[in-house]
Amino acid sequence: MNSKILSLLACMMLSTLPSCTGTRTLPTSDPDATPQTAALLSNLRTLAARGTMIGHQDALAYGVGWYDEPDRCDFRDACGRYPALFGWEVGELELGAAHSLDSIYFNRIRDYMKTVCARGGVNTLSWHARNPLTGGDAWDVSSDRAVESILPGGEKNALYQEWLDRLSAFFLSLKDGDGTPIPVIFRPFHELTGSWFWWGRDLCAVEQYVSLWRYTARELRARGVHNLLWAYSAAGYGSVEEFAERYPGDEYVDIVGFDAYDLPDSGFSDDVRARTAILLEFAAAHGKLPALTETGSEGLKNPAWFEEVLYPLLQGQGFSYVMLWRNAYDIPGHFYAAWPGHASASGLKTFVGRDDILTLDKVGSLYE
Q1: 349: closest CA among 299, 296, 304?
Q2: Which residues contact 288 (CB under 8 A, 6 or more apart)?
Q3: What is the per-residue pLDDT across 40-71, written as a single tens digit (0 to 9) for each?
Q4: Per 3-state DSSP, what percentage of the chain is helix, strand, and coil (rounded to 5)?
Q5: Angle at the Cα of 60 (from 58 to 66), degrees rounded to 5?
Q6: Are 181 and 172 in contact, with CB atoms under 8 Å apart?
């Protein structure tokens, strides 16, 4: 029996398993997902029962005071372990640019992602696409017609088709040493409950956001892209109804989560606990994996932040993963993971030493 048939049978069994908790489990949102992509989702579900994978944005590409140096990683150099999840950004790929808005060349991002896959880690991609209507960046909210303009019949639909051609070509180019497509957690149009991106809550109607997500998924699948797990990632919300208002549907989403940062006087811990309870209720009802898709405390002014703040929010909650934001190489103080010599390094080492915090060395084979 070949691997694709085995994968499909596994997905069918997962989708029909009974549960005493009321949680249901669904196969991949893409019915034509590659066997490795289906296996990744299945293994992520299994891992979530053991603990939470820890991730870091751009971990191999740069860090505090360095850029693109071979075999360097702030996270690993600070605590002795690699993260299990590696985040990347493809903003400005849609323009045909050579490098992302974070100044990483796309050919290098591809190389990093291949390295992560070869080592057994997980790759996740965000997409801070330019404003298609105004030409501004993703944070240009000067018009509430950007989403409308790229949907079928809109004046920028042809432009968006070009963007999707470039995006799909990149996804299709992600292959391991055997030529097998590398599975990716794709997290587009995130923080949708806020209004600081052109796809945000006050910038488009509910039905327009839902249409944008579904249209993007269908178009990428039509171009042969079947190595994606789709992550729906909100900002703030106060109820299941608010979280779910723009949800594009179970057939378009595999992972649900939210972004939350520990800002001064933000009531961070209470806010995360409240949002987590809502997220877990929604994830259980829809058979989706929950995740804390972005988080961190800029500059780590509390050196015990990982142990005193973050760990209590993760312990026993069932998050599949948590991703720390990046350590900028060119912005002093803009870092979210410990680095060698920083006061938080020992706290990070203690944090990742816990059995239920899963680093790369703890996750095993995720693509079989």
Answers
A1: 304
A2: 26, 250, 253, 254, 255, 256, 282
A3: 999 999 999 999 999 999 999 999 999 999 99
A4: 40, 15, 45
A5: 90
A6: yes
Residues 6+ apart with CB under 8 A from 279: 243, 256, 257, 258, 290
Cα 363 vs. chain centroid, distance in angstroms?
17
Check if the beta carbon of residue 275 is closer than 8 Å to that of residue 310: no
* Partners of residue 188 on adjacent β-strands: 127
Element containing residue 37 per DSSP (H, E): helix 35-48
**Which pTM value belongs to this model?**
0.93
Nearest to 249 by CA among 205, 218, 222, 293: 218
Q: What are phi and psi of 115, to 5 degrees?
A: -60, -45
CB atoms within 10 A of CB 8: 15
Token reading at 318: 């069932």
Over the stretch 126-140, which tens digit does the pLDDT of each residue have? 999 999 999 999 999
Neighbours of 342 (CB within 10 A): 19
